Amino acid sequence: MAVSADPHSTDVLVIGGGPAGSAVAARLADEGHDVTLVEKRAEGRHKSCGDLLSPRAVAELSQLEIDPMSFGGHPIQGVRMIFGRQRADTPWPERHDMPHHAVVIRRDELDEQLRRRARNAGATVLMGHEATTPISERGFVRGATMTLADGTIRDVNARFIVVADGASSRFGRVLGTSRQRRWPYAIAARTYFSSPRHRDAWVETSLGLSDPQGNPVAGYGWVTPMGDGNVNVGVGVLSSYRDIKGLNTLKLLTAFSDHVAADWGLDPTQPLKSPTRLRLPIGGSVGPKMGPTFLVVGDAAGAANPFSGDGIDAALMGGRLAANVLHEALTTGNSTTLQRYPVVVAEEVEAYRKVGRLSARFLGRPAILKPALRLATRSDATMGAVLRIATNALRDDDTAGGAERAYRLASLAAKFAPSW
To answer: Is the CB of residue 263 less than 8 Å from the CB of residue 279?
Structure first.
């Protein structure tokens, strides 16, 4: 074992350099707190997930004074929703607190910009530091032991910890986090292809995917134009699909790529990278989200949208809320303030997440999925309503429509349903 490096002390140790962790680090550093962010990879890693920043995510980034268009982002007007022979170009819902466009940016570039933002605010950013073991003091977590790329061991001591190390969250599991097994999760597979339509202004979403036997699958396929010569092609499936254990998502991705090849002018036999497969907890399904001296944010908390699987806006939101709570705790010296974190998260999104989890459970049943798809895609208006619900961009009461009425009914039903 390599000799231990000098220990490092900080007010807040953030474990994970993705959107959630970097958002926390940047906001706390802005407030003048001593923050250290550690990322286990020595260099940023590209991930084919998370290339699309929803209008909600763009709004969260704006609060951090980050404009993804300024470093190569590609604007997206809305979603082209397809079901059978029906298709509709559905613009992003208009809300006063969000822009009317989304942005596509490669995930490694986004992560680097967010880490740079944290660094510029005064946070210490340590790449190639993998948090392996909590440092405990009288039963409280007071830091973490790091393993560096060269095998050197280093301790980082802290008053508070933020766990933001992603969907597989090894450090979170050490602290006792786990996923609610009865709640749904998502499985996604994706890759890239060259395409002459890489500058299209619409993400294409295909509803009503079918398994090899022709049965409908509770999921969807997408083609996201990147604006750089390539498109991101993927499929996502909910675990509530009745035959999920026997479904090969990589084969489903291959079949979907073949299906869209002609329209997008791509060669389905020539992906630009090996397809990746990810199992993603959704709908806040991982807990606990806090302990006496730590908070859990982003994918480590299963924060992804239960309707769409989008995790970036939820990560940025969770980072904002966690930073607010930690700022208060650091300012007042009262660590019990951390107990507010699950409460403020619930106030922001728990009702929506519960409706999403309930919907996911029922949409896994073919007898419900088929008529639901037919109803959701019968007109441009209903497709627009589906998009408003799926992106959590429901209108205010004075402009409410069918989506809002349907959501209110579902929300009422969810109140009387079990917590899943």
So the answer is: no
How far is it, in rounded angstroms, from Cα 168 to Cα 166?
6
Does the domain at 8-75+102-180+282-351 match CATH 3.50.50.60? Answer given as yes
Segment 135-169, tens digit of pLDDT: 999 889 999 999 998 899 999 999 999 999 999 99
User: 309-366 pLDDT, tens per residue?
Assistant: 899 999 999 999 999 999 999 999 999 999 999 999 999 999 889 888 888 877 777 6
Q: How far is CA 191 from CA 58, 129, 131, 402, in A?
A: 23, 28, 29, 35
pLDDT digits (tens, 9 = 90+) for 178-219: 999 889 999 999 999 999 999 999 999 998 888 777 778 888
Rounded CA-CA distance 303/284 in Å is 5
- Contacts of 405-411 with C-beta under 8 Å, sequence gap 24+, read 407/355, 410/355, 410/358, 410/359, 411/351, 411/354, 411/355
For the chain, where do the domains classified as CATH 3.30.70 start and end?
185-281
In the chain, where does the domain assigned CATH 3.50.50.60 lie?
Answer: 8-75+102-180+282-351
Q: Map tokens 């084919």 to a residue.
A: 48
Rounded Cα gap, residues 17 and 118, in angstroms: 10
Paired with 143 in beta bridges are 157
Mean pLDDT of 389-414: 71
**Which CATH class, in words, describes the domain spanning 185-281?**
alpha beta
Residues 57-76 have a mean pLDDT of 97
If one compares 282 and 216, the residue with the highest pLDDT of the two is 282
